[in-house]
Structure formats: C-alpha cells, structure tokens
Amino acid sequence: MSTSSRDFGKSVETFLLGLRIASPLPNGIEVLQPYSDREVRRVVREMCATFYTDEPQRIALWGINPGRFGAGLTGLSFTDPYALRNDLGIDSTIDGRREISAEFVYRVIDAYGGPSTFYRDVYMSALSPLGFVRGTTNLNFYDDVELQDALTPQILRWTKKQISFGLRSDVTVVLGTGKLKHYMEQHVKAQCGFSKVLYLEHPRFIMQYRRKSVDDYVRKYVETIRGLVSPA
To answer: Residue 230: its pLDDT value, please?
Structure first.
C-alpha cells in the first residue's frame, strides 16, 4: 500500500539512510556507502524536508548507480557538491569536483523551472542507489556479470520499495538507451509493474559524446517530463 504524499519525504529519507547491500560482492568490488557519513545524512534529511514534501505522485527517473564524484559523495542522485550548494541551496562541508552527469541534470532542472518545481514532479534515483568501484574506477553494476546477478534481487526490492512511497507506476523514465534499457526490459519492468517505460540518453553519454547538442537534449528531457506530468 502506498504512503500518502505527506509522508513521501520521510519515506525517502528512511530508505536512503538505511541502504545496505545484503548480498556478498564479487572479489575486488567495493560499495560506495556515503550514508555512513554524518554530514551526508544531514544533507539527505534537508533535501527530503525541503523538496520532497506534501505533493502529488511523482514520476521516477532512474539512473544506473552512483559514481564517486556525484551521489557517491552527496548521497543524492545526480547531485555533486557544486549542485548541492549552488542549485539546491544546501550548505555543506562535502567537497568535490564538478561531475558531468550532475552538470547536465541541473541544466535540465533549471530549464524545467528550478529545483522546487522539478522535484515537485520528479523523483530522482537509480536502479542501484548504491554505487560500486573496482580499485579507483567507477563500476556500473551491469558491467560485471557476477555483480549483476548478485544484485538483481536487491534491485527489485529497492525499486518496489520506492514505488510504494507513492511513485507513479503507470509510467517511469530510465536514463539510458543501451545496456540499462536492456536490463530494465529484461529484469525490472514487468516485475515492478511498470506499464510504460520511456528511455532518454544518459547524461554522461550526452556530455561526453553529444556536447554540441546539449541544449537539444535538455529540451528533450524537459518536454518528456512535462508531457508525462501534464499529458496533452
């Protein structure tokens, strides 16, 4: 049973701050666990209390998993320390460099009308809300077969749990048109009850390989989300 909208922010806070990996990880892979840090926990609480309050059902946008310079530091999806301070207005001692996926996403948020408007309509997460590294390199969970197999039952539990907070299940958006799309179609869509899934190019792909067309992709993101929030 879904929680009421007034409980949404508290549900998100409790979920994020309680995240753990239940399955053992393959050798050489470590989990990014920002939520053990006191400052990250404070930041998450402030984010949820400010932007995830008494609102209608939100559309979920799902990424892959956090990286070391974005959500792996701040605990907030597609949010680096720069965006935390300069876009969300949350002062913090968390330090780090600009992360290109976060840079793109906050261009989208600005074009949408700013954080208050965006987060009223949208919930940002990742299929795996915890990230992974091998050595000093970010790792997408689907790039290691053993990791994907070990993680899939947990991903399904995490996704179903977040839907239960009051997210829309008739439609959702995935930020990835390649391997993440394949994974969503094969492992998640039907099991989690999504009637329709839309796929947008991943922010990192856009910033690395389509930078000259960033404005076009920003418009595409905004138009896609607005079309779901207020269908014609």
So the answer is: 83
